[in-house]
Design brief:
It comes from Arcobacter venerupis. InterPro entries: TPR-like_helical_dom_sf (IPR011990), TPR_rpt (IPR019734). This is Tetratricopeptide repeat protein. The chain is of the alpha+beta class. The protein folds into 2 domains: about 150 residues, Alpha Horseshoe (Serine Threonine Protein Phosphatase 5, Tetratricopeptide repeat); about 290 residues, Beta Barrel (Porin). The chain is built from 11 helices and 16 strands. Strands 1-4-5-6-7-8-9-10-11-12-13-14-15-16 form a 14-stranded antiparallel barrel. A two-stranded antiparallel ribbon has the order 2-3. Helix 9 runs antiparallel to helix 10 and helix 10 runs antiparallel to helix 11.
């Protein structure tokens, strides 16, 4: 029943809940006659910087010295508690939060952090009491939603359902991976000149429906999650590029006794239907581990084409992924992948690739945010292509920019654009694409 905590920790609710700190502390500082002087001091500013850059040990040491001189300052106490919490000094953090709430019972953000700590320490009755007090307070909707989820857990709710609907329209400048220079030569065939496909631009509409069923086993740290997703993309003028995907992903998870690490065994079955009849299935299996700082996974995939004429395209893929939370709004990741043909003599399947990427989110305010993501993939093919008289090497670059606006907690609009360019030592694989779209997203929670 504790697995929902890991989901909460990775939720945007936690990131947005922290935005209440400034407003709560500012009011308290105004009440303390001397606290503004402390906040302006070099010691306080330095301690705040240390906390901001996540050097929690130095932040703790400096806030502790400030506390010894100013034991009744709410702001100093609050960040001392947070620093202690980051260093797993739970007893000290608990005592400090209690000291704050005695002095200022209306400091909701301190009570929120205190309640989460009590839950983490498995003090269920005490945590339930604090969350109940918060639920009756004047707090943000996002924080109240997070509190409701905690109370569901404390009241031993074990089954959760959430769903997402996406409706979008967009335009791509290259729906068929057409070449930048459609005419190119084949060195392995006496430099004969051949004609490749030209890029085709078209508008499209896409739809997606996803639903997740999470079952937390009662009085246990295990859970079972079943995810189902259907995705459809149709072009206005070139229906042979249309596709529909059906995805089923079950996963079995375990949350350790410290409620820090979530271990999962993930499965997946995907069916991709394409209008050009190159339909195929993807089966995948692999373990993963996730906490508040990183996500790591190992994954095996089998790509299996349905039609006998396409069976030579079957291949296996092995992936190792590591994603690290560098800052609260910045993730970096790296992936190693290896593809191996199953039963054919094709030279365009076996390859090794290395991926590096980042995801950055800038919050303008609680309703609007901007997301930037970038990815680079270096691929080395194993076999020589006799037509090009070389082994293929690709450099793929991707840049994405999105603007998200929340209508309310269940509805949002996303404007997104992307640029992809693939360089290769073989002219038949050099292409680029620009894509832009607008999407409406609605979420449901039960």
């Amino acid at each position: 029943m504790y697995l929902k905590t890991a989901i909460l920790l990775s939720s945007v609710i936690f990131l947005e809940a922290d935005n209440e700190i400034a407003s709560n502390n500012k009011n308290q500082i105004k009440k303390d006659g001397y606290s503004q002087i402390i906040e302006d001091s070099n010691e306080y500013i330095t301690a705040s910087i240390m906390y901001k850059i996540q050097d929690y040990q130095k932040a703790y040491d400096k806030f502790f010295k400030l506390f010894q001189k100013n034991p009744h300052n709410t702001n100093v106490n609050y960040f001392l508690a947070l620093s202690a919490l980051k260093l797993d000094k739970y007893d000290e953090a608990t005592a400090t939060f209690e000291r704050i709430l005695i002095q200022n019972p209306e400091f909701n953000q301190a009570r929120y952090e205190y309640a989460k700590l009590l839950y983490k320490l498995n003090l269920k009755n005490e945590a339930k009491k604090e969350f109940t007090i918060l639920s009756k307070s004047n707090i943000k909707d996002e924080t109240k939603e997070s509190i409701t989820k905690y109370l569901d857990l404390l009241n031993e709710k074990t089954f959760f359902v959430n769903a997402t609907i996406l409706l979008g329209v967009g335009r791509s400048t290259n729906i068929n991976t057409g070449l930048i220079s459609p005419e190119y030569r084949l060195p392995g065939l006496n430099d004969i000149l051949v004609n490749g496909e030209k890029p085709i631009a078209d508008n499209y509409h896409n739809e997606m429906f996803g639903i997740n069923f999470l079952n937390n086993f009662k009085d246990s740290s295990f859970s079972l999650k079943n995810s189902i997703l259907v995705y459809n993309k149709n072009y206005f003028n070139n229906d042979k590029e249309d596709l529909t995907a059906y995805v089923y992903k079950p996963s079995f998870s375990y949350l350790d006794s410290d409620k820090k690490n979530l271990y999962s065994l993930n499965f997946g079955l995907t069916r991709l239907d394409k209008r050009d009849n190159e339909d195929f299935n993807i089966f995948n299996i692999g373990p993963s581990i996730m906490n508040s700082s990183y996500y790591a996974s190992v994954n095996y995939q089998r790509f299996s084409y349905l039609h006998e004429s396409d069976k030579e395209k079957d291949f296996d893929k092995y992936e190792l992924l590591l994603k690290y939370k560098l800052l609260s709004n910045l993730n970096i990741y790296s992936k190693l992948a290896k593809s191996i043909r199953v039963d054919s003599s094709r030279v365009d399947l076996d390859k090794n690739s290395v991926t590096a990427g980042l995801e950055y989110i800038y919050e303008i305010n609680k309703e609007n945010s901007i997301k930037f993501d970038s990815e680079y993939i270096k691929s080395y093919y194993k076999y020589e292509n006799t037509f090009f008289d070389s082994k293929r090497k690709d450099d793929n670059y991707y840049l994405g920019l999105s603007y998200l606006t929340k209508i309310d907690k269940e509805n949002q609009i996303v404007l997104s654009s992307s640029f992809t360019k693939n360089y290769s030592n073989q002219d038949g694989y050099i292409y680029e694409e620009v894509d832009g779209k607008i999407s409406y997203i609605k979420t449901f929670n039960w």
